[in-house]
Request: fold
Amino acid sequence: MHLLRAPFTARAWRELAYVLTGLPVSTAVFCVLVTLVATSAGLLVTFLGIPLLAATLLVARGVGAAERARARWLLGLHVPGSGALPPGVRGASLTAGTAAVLRNGTSWRNLLYGLVSFPWSVFSFCTGLTVWSAGWGMATYPLWSWSLPEPGAQLGENSAGEAVYVDAPLEVAAFSAAGMFVVLVVPWWLRGLTAVDRMLVKGLLGPSRLTERVQRLEAGRAVVTDTASADLRRIERDLHDGAQARLVALAMDLGLAREKLTEDPETAARMVDEAHGEVKLALQELRDLARGIHPAILTDRGLGPALATLTNRCTIPVTLTTDLPQRPAPAIEAIAYFTVSELLQNISKHSNAHHATIDIWRTTDRLLLHVTDNGQGGATPHPGTGLAGLTERLTSVDGQLLIHSPTGGPTTITAELPWRARDVC
Reply:
């Protein structure tokens, strides 16, 4: 049924429109760019050739933006653009702006697209239009055969040089059936043609791998900066509302005890005893805060023992299995520790699980964390949730978080981190 509907779908007609509009668009673009490039090359012996070449590259960037829009409208292909002009173009002198444009790889790839797309557009236009028109013409032959001056459509000549016509009812039926077969094949033929266009648009008009890498790193750096700022604010708030307030009250109590030391030693001793208890509580709060920043056991003994301590404090039973022949870099180790800590907190608070399992191992170049629980499931990384924060934090170091949590459970979460060996001095 899908095969029969394919020639009449919106996708098939949009792809046909893309193929048909490709030839006039690419012809105009090719002529303009070839003229500008040839003129620039001819004027390179003078000063005018270089700024004209830069202007040609700017025209190519405009062509790239228009072609991305055409691919988005007709093919549903969303390719991110190259962004604004290269740094140093706007507000710069002619020499500096020209140099910035000539050094920009995106402009050269846009120019290459304008030159390469022309021969392909000629081929796709000719073959696409020929197959499409032949298929529909043959399929509808019984509807328009009466308008032919001859008794039927002429297919060619036989060995005797006589014309061969499609006029018999059986021949007409076979001819029309062959046309229907071509019509059913046309959408797939167009899809194959536009697949090449998709590759050209993605490869030459989209951001390069280096650009995507830089963008991911910049986004990751922003996430890390925001996370660090949030952590600093949390630490400041915990210190202000917890240990600091307790120490201020302790200082006041000790001051009162000093005043009563001579006139009421018993009351002073009781107050000192209460202050001693407050000191213990303040120390415990500071230890808990330090553990939240970076647990000492993680630094001293590594990820396995630190996670073992973490699972012992969990409110549900947790089975921990680690297979790490050596310790990863401190940054990766810390991210892995706090990832497991966040996941265990989510399990304890939201999953209603009775048991959880944690497996940690290393592949060739990845550190893998596999956390499962038998809870109610339904865990999703909605914006603002802990899982969304974990996803951003892992992405910032080229990691990823994979979540499988159907309603009713179980929940399986896999975290992947790049393996970076610890420096050994």
Remarks:
- The longest strand covers residues 366-373.
- The CA atoms of residues 231 and 293 lie 8 Å apart.
- The chain has a mean pLDDT of 78.
- The beta strands are 153-157, 163-166, 318-323, 356-362, 366-373, 400-404, 411-418.
